[in-house]
């Protein structure tokens, strides 16, 4: 499978080409937010993004980049994690 590289991104942050261009952008937005939670650790952020969460009805955060609404839901969840407001 070919990989898509975003300009100014480390090779480790590559994205599978099965994402449409708008989904690639949303994926990177979620990845950046998740990296903040994990102190910049990309491996930990990607691992978290790949795990299904009850908060998202059993969907993994990286599967929630298909729409802006789902992506916004993940970003808001991450913001709540950063501020200690998860319920």
Q: Characterize the main sheet.
A: 2 strands, antiparallel
Give the tally of β-strands. 2
The helix/strand order is: EEHHH
Main structural class: mainly alpha
Average pLDDT level: 84
Percentage of β-strand residues: under 5%
**Alpha carbon gap, first and last residue:** 38 Å
Q: What does the overall shape look like?
A: globular
Helix content: 40-55%
Q: Please, how many helices?
A: 3
The radius of gyration over CA amounts to: 13 Å
What oligomeric state is this?
single chain
Describe the overall structure.
Strands 1-2 form a two-stranded antiparallel ribbon. It has one domain (19-83). The chain has 87 residues and is mainly α. 48% of the residues lie in helices and 5% in strands. Helix 1 crosses helix 2 and helix 1 (21-37) packs parallel to helix 3.
């Amino acid at each position: 499978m070919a990989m898509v590289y975003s300009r100014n991104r480390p090779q480790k942050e590559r994205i599978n080409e099965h994402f449409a261009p708008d989904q690639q952008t949303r994926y990177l937005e979620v990845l950046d937010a998740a990296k903040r939670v994990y102190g910049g650790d990309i491996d930990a952020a990607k691992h978290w993004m790949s795990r299904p969460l009850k908060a998202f009805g059993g969907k993994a955060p990286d599967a929630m980049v298909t729409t802006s609404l789902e992506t916004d839901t993940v970003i808001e969840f991450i913001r709540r994690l950063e501020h200690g407001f998860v319920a």
